[in-house]
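Reposting from the mailing list since nobody answered there.

I have sequence plus structure tokens for a pair of proteins and want to know whether others read the tokens the same way I do. The first protein:
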Amino acid sequence: MTDLERLIELEAIRDMKARRDHAVDRKDWDTYAALHSDDYVAMSIGAEPIVGGKAAAAQLAVQMAGVTTVHHCHTPVIEFQDSHNATGVWAMEDNLFWYRNGEKQWLRGFGFYHETYRKEADGAWRFTYRKLERTHAETSPGASAIAADFSGENTIIGIG
């Protein structure tokens, strides 16, 4: 891979990641699914892996119903194994807002997304794996039960 080819592919992966974050925050589950491979694996501590972009999108649609989300991912470290496979680690911050029993709840989390990507036959890069490593989270008082399991992830924010 030449330096120019590497830069072009890096930008394609960065663009895919931005589209993924936008899809989650806009609740555009069709776009979300299309950005993930059929054999994509979403890891979540305390839960079985979710396999496939469509399955991950369907699960997120349920988890994020009624939740306003704001995702920020930055400072990626992307490494190519070859011209069609890469790994990435992105620093992240997410903010989630929802109501429970008429009371506003929130969660603000920080950490890293660990991901793998594959350039598929159609020339598009797709996610093949993601795991969220949470390093810190803050919650509203009423949200503490939802956010109690911060060994890495929990049901409301687990597969992002």
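The second protein, same order (residues first, tokens after):
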Amino acid sequence: MKAVLLVAGMSSRLRPLTDDTPKCLLSVAGVPILRRCVTALRSAGVTEIVAVTGYLEDTIKAVLGDWFGGPVTYRRNDIFNQTQNGASLLCARDVVEGQPFVMLDGDIVFDPEVLRLVVASEHADCLALRPADDLGEEEVKVYVDPADRTRVTRIHVSLPPADAVGESIGIEKFSAATSAVLFKTIEARIAEHGAKTEYYEKAFDQLCQEGTLTLRAIDVGTLYCAEIDTPDDLAVVQRALEAGAIPPGTR
């Protein structure tokens, strides 16, 4: 299976740490975030990576192939400083459209078992869900059907948190059929709304509401997963890993 890895962003909120280093190459507990992602992808059986780069892409290209040890295809978001992740995902269209693939944000630190659960799921279209009742403004909230607690009905950062069952952490798997529809939807949304505000979750949300996509939530329970956006996030994750949040043998 192929994996689309989104690593194009500037990560301005992490400056000065990211002045000369892309966020995905920052180290947490002595291991770069990207290397952790690559190790998890290999462990889950991914055989090819499609990396969407942008900011400081040469530093990523210098290490990613060696770390993965398999084929890596690169696509560049030339306007990474003017767009959101929907535009970055669209850059991978020519490589994965009409094929099943896993998608992974390049700024998350997680127990590799999280990815294995998604890849091994019987559901062709699914996402990793961190169950939580303490969601804030920045988390991508997930609503599910009360009669079918795995079927996602809404997914959006701006949803009221009270009715959310948890957070989408940025790991998804899509079928070949959904892949074709997804890219068309992202393209149409960017044409209508512009790329500056189009996160890929907005396309997921639209397709779920239309009934075009039956997206399943894979509850990862207490398995560790966290997104890094700020220096505070980085410090929190560092402390968590030092305390054993992810078993050392799986990091």
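Reply #1 (J.P.):
I read it the same way you do. The chain is about 35% helix and 25% strand.
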